[in-house]
Amino acid sequence: MHHTHIQNYRCPKCGGKLEPGYIAGQWSRLRWCLKEKTKTVFSGKPLKKVPDIWNAPTVEAARCDKCKLGVFSYDN
Ligand SMILES: [Zn+2]
């Protein structure tokens, strides 16, 4: 596993230390969308350039469990 500085980020709300991890999806690619509800895998833009067909889609992330807020890193 590679490590980036995302794990050193602080919570944008409370300034506390963030818990590192990954946001994982199921089956279809993780996408960035401008609306809350989408029905197809074609709306929005994938967060990763190259999909991993053997594993569920993930992006590196860090979250604050107290504020229920998080940041994530993507490459597309
Ligand atoms: Zn917080």
Describe, in plain words, how this protein is organized in 3D.
By secondary structure, the chain is mainly beta. The protein has a domain at 22-31 and 43-76. The protein is built from no helices and 5 strands. The protein has strands spanning 19-24, 31-32, 45-46, 58-64, 69-72. A 3-stranded antiparallel beta sheet has the order 1-4-5, with no helix packed on it. The protein is globular, with a radius of gyration of 14 Å. The mean pLDDT is 85. It binds zinc ion (ZN). Zinc ion (ZN) binds at residues 11, 13-14, 16, 64, 66-67, 69.
List the helices and strands and how they pair.
Layout: E1 19-24, E2 31-32, E3 45-46, E4 58-64, E5 69-72
Bound molecules: zinc ion.
The site of zinc ion (ZN) has 8 residues, from loops.
Question: Could you give a quick summary of the protein structure above?
Answer:
This protein is mainly beta. The protein has strands at 19-24, 31-32, 45-46, 58-64, 69-72. It has a domain at 22-31 and 43-76.
Q: Strands across the major sheet, in which order?
A: 1-4-5
Bound small molecules, by name, code or SMILES, are: zinc ion
Count, helices: 0
Helix content: under 10%
Query: What's the overall geometry?
Result: globular
* Strand percent estimate: 25-35%
Characteristic key phrases:
28% strand, 76 residues, binds zinc ion, mainly beta, two-stranded antiparallel ribbon
